[in-house]
Amino acid sequence: FHTLSMLQVENVKLLDRYTNRKAANGTLYLTATHLIYVDASTDVRKETWILHHHIATVEKLPLTTAGYPLLIHCKNFRVAHFVIGQERDCHEVYTSLLKLSQPAKPEELYAFSYNPKVSKESREIGWKLIDLKVDYQRMGIPNDYWGLTDVNKDYEVCNTYPPEIVVPRAASKAVIIGSSRFRSRGRIPVLSYLYKENNAAICRCSQPLSGFSARCLEDEQMLQAIREANPRSPFMYVVDTRPKLNAMANRAAGKGYENEDNYDNIRFKFIGIENIHVMRSSLQKLLEVCEMKSPSMSDFLTGLENSGWLRHIKAVMDAGVFLAKAVKDEKASVLVHCSDGWDRTAQVCSLASLLLDPFYRTFKGFMVLIEKEWIAMGHKFSHRCGHLDGDPKEVSPVFTQFIECVWQLMQQFPCSFEFNEHFLLEIHDHVYSCQFGNFLGTCHKEREDLKIFEKTHSLWPFLLQKKQELSNPLYKGLTAYKELQPNTLPFSFQFWCGMYNRFDKGMHPKQCVMDYLLSCMSQKMKLEDEASELENKLSFLDGPSPSEGSSLSEVGHTTSKTPMLNTPQDYEGEPPPVLSSGASVGDVDVPSGVDQKHKENLSHHQDLQDLSDTAHVLDSEVKGRKPQHH
Amino acid sequence: MEFAELIKTPRADNVVLHRPFYLAVEGTLCLTGHHLIFSSRRHDNAEELWLLHSNIDSIEKRFVGSLGTIVIKCKDLRIIQLDIPGMEECLNIASSIEALSTLDSVTLMYPFFYRPMFEIIEDGWRSFLPDQEFELLSSVTDEWRLSCINKDFSVCPSYPPVVIVPKSIDDEALWKVAMFRHGSRFPVLSYYHKKNGMVMMRSSQPLTGTNGRRCKEDEKLINATLRPGKRGYIIDTRSLNVAQQARAKGGGFEQEAHYPQWRRIHKCIERFNILQESLIKLVEACNDQSHNMDRWLSKLEASNWLTHIKEILTAACLAAQCIDREGASVLVHGTEGTDSTLQVTSLAQIILDPRCRTIRGFESLVVREWLQAGHPFQQRCAQSAYSNSKQKWEAPVFLLFLDCVWQILRQFPCSFEFNERFLIMLFEHAYASQFGTFLGNNENERSKLKLPQKTMSLWSWVNSSEELIKFQNPLFEANSLVIWPSVAPQSLQLWEGVFLRWNRPSKFLDEAQEEMINIIKYNKQLQAKVNALRRQIAEMGTDDRM
């Protein structure tokens, strides 16, 4: 990358905020896509790669004796603290990064220049991997009550919905259009998930434009149609995921919530998940806690409590559990909304689906779920993730919260997910990386206008290719667990160190059970192959077999469980002069998995042959399906 | 005393047992001298619950009409409820349980009555003798000797009969040092670090008092562990403030002037009622069924349990760091040297010494650093988190130690031969047991009670192959390295296996554990099969050639 580099600064220190060992010294490069830091002070070449799009903030701190500090906060919660020798260099890096991290135009996003050596065909096949129609078929749709409608094919009903939506067959076009005029941004009630066992459905929409007294016959008919699509249930729930006070305040602006008197047989309920601004500041507080230099236990727990983060996670989880219970236990359909129905509603509906249907806990299913409830239904990834230079008040960790809820479920149900924590982290990384087209823009129409299906690659084939390392060795298969009923007492929620302190390797367990089990799985395959080979050989063996079999070496060693050389932390607090000599002890730092990962990112530029292999694998998966997007 | 006198109603029918996450069961309740037994008496699916009276921490009774309800809270933190028809029966049973769970005399405890149902292969009372330990030591160094100065417990009542001290210090000097240390607990060897020959010693505080008394022999004793020109560290488990205050009561700490080769570091580890309160608050928080996240986090914080964990672990890491990284010898003490001192010395050994991470090695550690070192188990573990009667001496010192071990185990899941169940089992037996191991407060008391003759050792049972298998960690692979745990708050967790054990179903976590074992077991079988096949083919090859 020396040649690719746009800017190169020597003599840069990278401070490690966790250990008290001497800061690394090295060279910082800026390429078109990455900030790369090469540590020159160790024998082992150690590289740190930071994607420009991952950079959330860049700060210049006051001059220190070591030089000019530059503090970088990333959207994947990496914190990099550089110290640069010259002020001029520091300023140049600073201004370059500001520009590079948040481009002004979507065309400047990484996805439009990311060019793995993949054929045009496999790229197109990649986009067809996830077909939502197939998922509706899986739910048994179309059926007597539900059907796909093309009423939104030209985005006339709702420009933030996809062209194909599922509505009750009983709802006529007039009802749909009437209802859309009564719903914020035309986001009418549509089907999110149909629980085949009892016909109860989860539907989603935006808030009604009810103000203090307005009503709309078509909207009332729409809800009636949804309720009647579940003929055995005498009522349906309408769930407003906002706190009641927020919903009431909205009435003054001509919006609001459903009046139980106007709709037949609905049970209305507030759930009380806070809005995007509360969530944004909650995460900010959480990250401040995670970044504290050497906090006491009290500092940490008090900070964790004051951030409110786990309270919000629990609120989202509680809402998901409420929906799943209503559908499964009460056999009632549920209509969910918040304000616009693209943040809290997306969280809650996708979580409920995940609880109800084991398919969504597989690789493929989870991809479908994200495509369906988040991407297709117009969660504004571009704004919420701050892909472009825009309004910082639109940024909010709504999707991060969903990913965390899934992780919390994994802690309670370790055998029920096909994928592991790394899969969640990969997805979370790429929501911000803008390397793939999936999360660009704010809705389907915008992605069409940006031509992402023609110009960019889809994330999913890329992830499927890494399936082996992202899978959960403890997974017991689709049928082992059906619905999940998580415990939502507060003690069931843990702080997710692997996410928010992900790059502070010193805090993590030094031996990883998951990695060990994954290596067991690959060893298992090798052993099974060899066993059957040997058995074959034995059954046909009638002549002498020279030399073979004389060695009894083990096949495919599992990775050693011996941890990396680990080093003591600063246990002293305020080190007395004698102890400070501890720094002289030769601490060998083996390049960690973090840097490994980023080297992998590099590999997309250099060596992408193997990606085309996936495309072949995918061929079989999409065969016989109509392209969804064109 | 006859137990029968305490049992007015030995049996009650139509009792309903309530436990969290189980359906209520109806059955018969029986009281014996040492057990509360509940049997569902259903032929298809007979369920029995045996509860040691000594495991009962507190009981509450209430009545609705003539239906009585007894809530039993156990030292292992479980809570069960019994509905007993008939006011008189209920009152009788409640008062029997109360009396039987708070017997005064140790010799009435169950271990004196328990007859083992398993075959004893190895007498646990003889499994970990000081001589064996010294033999191991002598193979690597000749700078130490076994002293029998305490053979009849006359020098130090809380020390074992034999202790390991520097060779250059004779018994006469030890006598003098004993006079200078609180409770006569003179510095003795706790751990020898083979890698660099550095040692960890432990003792109680020196009795310097307000006028700065000194004892040349004491100085000589601990200096005997130093290499020429090297310094050592004294880790005082009290804050400087507390240590200074101790002088007023005749205690104190090593003055720089008299111990110029030693650097003192103060670490603040809490003791006694502060720890007991902490446990009570933590358990109360864990039992709170309210859905309020802020309340939970604030209660967890206010319990300070994890703060204590962090403090103890940090002090232990520091001791280990001094020995392994600084190449210095260490002396650890607090006030008496029977609580926080032992937490630090035993955890430091787990960090430094791979042997302590094996099952046998850990058992040996518990015997050496806790039982023989005179941790007063009987006082500390008399009551647990639910007790109303607050006595002065209870403290979950040993539980905190086990919790710290669990934290290290969680960070190094493949470096320990034992699993979490092993630690939980030790917690249970420290508080209530059929075995005599944890009875008494020191070796002196155990010898007077004739425990080795009259009771069964926990180790006899644990080390039987049938039991051992339950405590083995399938991920274990001997790791000879020093293991440095992280003590960052993000790295320390609530020990769910103990504190949430009865508050949530563990089905899904157990299944995961089982799955993990299966994966590893299957691979081992496959490997064996492949090896056998290869051998077979090789043999056929050589047969043919013959």
TrEMBL record, chain A:
Gene3D superfamilies attached to this UniProt entry: Pleckstrin-homology domain (PH domain)/Phosphotyrosine-binding domain (PTB)
Biased composition, class Basic and acidic residues, residue ranges: 595-608
Compositional bias annotation for Polar residues: 556-569
Domain Myotubularin phosphatase per the UniProt entry, residue ranges: 126-500
CDD domains linked: PTP-MTMR8 (cd14584)
Gene Ontology CC terms, in alphabetical order: cytoplasm; nuclear envelope
Keywords: Hydrolase, Lipid metabolism
Region (Disordered): 538-614
GO biological process: phosphatidylinositol dephosphorylation
InterPro entries named in the record: MTMR8_PTP, Myotubularin, Myotubularin-like_Pase_dom, PH-GRAM_MTMR6-9, PH-like_dom_sf, Prot-tyrosine_phosphatase-like, Tyr_Pase_AS, Tyr_Pase_cat
Superkingdom classification of source: Eukaryota
Gene Ontology molecular function terms on file: phosphatidylinositol-3,5-bisphosphate phosphatase activity; phosphatidylinositol-3-phosphate phosphatase activity
Positions annotated to bind substrate: N275, I276, C338, S339, D340, G341, W342, D343, R344
Positions annotated as active site in the UniProt record: C338 (phosphocysteine intermediate)
Start-end of Low complexity biased regions: 541-554, 580-594
Similarity section: Belongs to the protein-tyrosine phosphatase family. Non-receptor class myotubularin subfamily.
Protein name (Swiss-Prot/TrEMBL): MTMR8 protein
Classification lineage: Eukaryota, Metazoa, Chordata, Craniata, Vertebrata
Gene responsible for this protein: Mtmr8
From TrEMBL, chain B:
Transmembrane helix keyword on record: no
Cellular localization per UniProt: Cell projection, Ruffle membrane; Cytoplasm, Perinuclear region; Endoplasmic reticulum
Transmembrane segments: none
Bilayer disposition of the protein: Peripheral membrane protein
PROSITE patterns: PPASE_MYOTUBULARIN (PS51339)
Keywords of the record: Acetylation, Cell membrane, Cell projection, Coiled coil, Cytoplasm, Endoplasmic reticulum, Membrane
Gene Ontology cellular-component annotations: cytosol; endoplasmic reticulum; perinuclear region of cytoplasm; ruffle membrane
Major subcellular site: membrane
GO BP: negative regulation of autophagy; phosphatidylinositol dephosphorylation
GO MF annotation list: protein phosphatase binding
Coiled coil regions in record: 509-543
Annotated Myotubularin phosphatase domain residues: 124-499
Family classification: Belongs to the protein-tyrosine phosphatase family. Non-receptor class myotubularin subfamily.
Protein name: Myotubularin-related protein 9
Species annotation: Probosciger aterrimus (Palm cockatoo)
Native organism taxonomy: Eukaryota, Metazoa, Chordata, Craniata, Vertebrata
